[in-house]
Amino acid sequence: MFCRVRHKWCRVTSFTDAPISWPRGQPLKERGGGGVVVNATLERAIRTESAESLRHFFGVTRGVVWRWRKAFGIPRAGTPGSAVRIAESSAKGAAAMKSKEWTAEELDRKSKLSKRLGLKPTGRWAVGGWTDEQRALLGTDDDEVIAARVGRTKGAVQAKRAVLGIEVFRQTAQRRDGGTCR
After folding, report:
1. What mean pLDDT comes out for the span 64-85?
2. Which of 10, 102, 105, 145 fits as disulfide partner to 141, beta carbons 3.0 to 4.6 Å?
3. What pLDDT sits at residue 124?
4. What is the side-by-side strand order in the sheet with 8-15?
């Protein structure tokens, strides 16, 4: 059989002991290096199925699946089967997080971790969003300075200023000849 991963002809030496018994082979005129022979049918499975399915049905390890996908240039979630498994896992994790009752201590720990990691507050939980005082500051100083004062990102300040049609702050500087420039 011709192996599409090794790009060599292989002699079939045995079959895997898996739900789908698959030929194992060794490249002709070589010692060692035996393994599952990847033909067109298995390549189609590699390109479409999840890594978990490949491991189960063909009796191979994670490392083997990773090498197969690398050989064919397939990214981590690059198959329809993997995308489905990742989406299922994400939905399950999200449901678990939503159903959890957070204690005040746990919320404080998460808050401290976010601050330590330098994560920016999003402001999405603030009642009513931007306050009148925060909106009044827009355009009165550099966006980065305003962002630090109101506890938001520079991008959030820029976006809010743009939505409200407020001009960018431009500081007037004195020129050496006594005139002013913008």
Report:
1. 88
2. 145
3. 55
4. 2-3, 8-15, 23-27, 35-36
Same domain, 75 and 125: no
Neighbouring CB atoms inside 10 A of 153's CB total 17
- Reading the block at residue 124, the tokens are 């999405």
pLDDT digits (tens, 9 = 90+) for 78-119: 888 888 888 888 899 888 888 888 888 988 898 888 888 887
Residue 120 tokens read as: 């920016």
Please tell me whether residue 67 adopts helix, strand or coil conformation. Answer: helix
Could you tell me if residue 112 is inside a domain?
no
Is pLDDT at 162 greater than 50 in this prediction?
A: yes
Q: State the residue for tokens 């401290």.
A: 112
**Shared domain check, 7 and 64:** yes
Are 76 and 27 within one domain? yes
Handedness of CA 118, 119, 125, 130 (dihedral sign): positive
Q: Could you tell me if residue 104 is inside a domain? A: no
Query: Alpha-carbon distance 167 to 182, whole Å?
Result: 14
